[in-house]
Every structure is written in C-alpha cells, then in structure tokens.
Design goal:
There is one protein chain. The protein has three helices and three strands, in the order αβααββ. By secondary structure, the protein is an alpha+beta fold. Strands 1-3-2 form a three-stranded antiparallel sheet. α1 packs across α2 and α1 crosses α3. The longest helix is centred in the first third of the chain and has 19 residues.
C-alpha cells in the first residue's frame, strides 16, 4: 500500500482552511491570514498553493470567494 503524500497534503490543507474559515465566521478572512494558517502547519506553503485549494473548495461550494482587484482574495465559509 502506498501513500500519496501530495494528496494527503492537499486534503489536510483544505481541512485546515475550512476550520480557519469556520472560526472566522461570519466575516471570513483574507488570503494573507489564511496563508499564515497554512504556513503554521506546512512551513513551505505558498500563496499559489493556497489559492489552488481555495479554488477547489469554491468549485465544490464549500466557500465563497471574492477575488479582489488588488490581488488579495477574501473567503467565507459556505452554507
């Protein structure tokens, strides 16, 4: 049996993002705060990786995303 380390990392990151956004209810959080959460668990986490996971959660209707013109993203947990 082999363990897909990247899959475990992606799924773990999504879980921690959902927990952080649950605790940030009802306002949500900016990506800079969420990146701090990710980096506290995965020290080599990047904003590109964070945005990819937020896009995934958004595509599955777990979070609402507001991609701002200044480059920052604001996320809120969905219903």
């Amino acid at each position: 049996m082999s363990v897909d380390v990247l899959k475990v990392r992606r799924e773990g990151m999504r879980w921690y993002l959902l927990l952080a956004l649950h605790n940030a209810r009802p306002l949500g959080a900016l990506d800079v705060l969420l990146l701090d959460v990710v980096r506290s668990i995965y020290a080599d986490g990047t904003s590109t990786e964070l945005h990819a996971q937020l896009d995934y959660l958004h595509s599955h209707h777990f979070v609402e995303l507001n991609k701002r013109p200044d480059g920052h993203w604001h996320a809120k947990i969905g219903r």
